[in-house]
Amino acid sequence: VQIELRDVHKWFGANHVLRGIRLEVPAGRRIGLIGPNGSGKSTLTRVIMGMLSCEGSVRLDGADPAEQGQELLRRVAYVPQIAPQLFAPVGDVLQAVCALRDLPLARVKEVARGLGLDVDALAGRPFRNLSGGMKQKLLIALALSTRASLLILDEPTASLDAWSRDRFFHLFQEVGQEVGEPATLILCSHRLEEVRHLVDHVVAMQDGKIVYDGAAEEYLAQRALSVIEVSLDAGADADWLVEQGFRQGVRGDAGRWLRTVTREAKMPALASVTQRFDGRLKDVNVRELETIDVPHVKTDKGRKTEGGAEHG
Prior knowledge:
By secondary structure, this protein is of the alpha/beta class. Helix content is about 35%, strand content about 30%.
């Protein structure tokens, strides 16, 4: 699916959530949609799916989702960040979705098994009573089984353990190969491993506007963070370390220093430390942070949105 947005605005009362969005997504592109809470990501995805009205032009393969929503939505698969609280048993939910989307139930069960989920064992349990991880696996299995041409995934692996996340990455690639032409993907995520595995392009939002639209590799070089930790004799070259951006650890060890750096700055920082303290380093440790650094913004009313729910 090719996506085209022209001068898209969305208001919720006095809150201007989307501010003149212009975006072109070629068919088959895999987009990482990134931004802090309140930046407009969820609102934008709902506008694209035709779930929310807006000012401006939205086109999916040239069609308006607000006017041809039912037809277009058959080509879309969506995994929300928060699963719906359905009272119906899992078996009934599966039968209803499969009938609506013309899906073979056996295929959904197969994909679910690939994520370590036994659908038959859960058939009689209310969907709302499943654990967060089980709900997410079931929603992912349904989405990947549709062979949709547009996938919209909102923090799809947030409730999954490491093994299940790894299986999700493999299943995603396998489904893409089966379909032939790759589906267009919009992935809302701050998880470094998801962006690295699944997308080739990043669209970053801030305060309802697009502030970056380009290659994922370039964005990650600026925003993917690592922590460099060095151990030295207490008091050694403290002034130089502070000048280089290091801070002392909080575990009572005066010789332990840490610095958070971008991927681009990691190797130069390591080189400068090893050259400065050649032969005097007790230990050096480098670890990557799991999430991507995203700046927080303020709403029109001036209050910070950090940690809050996204507007719209």
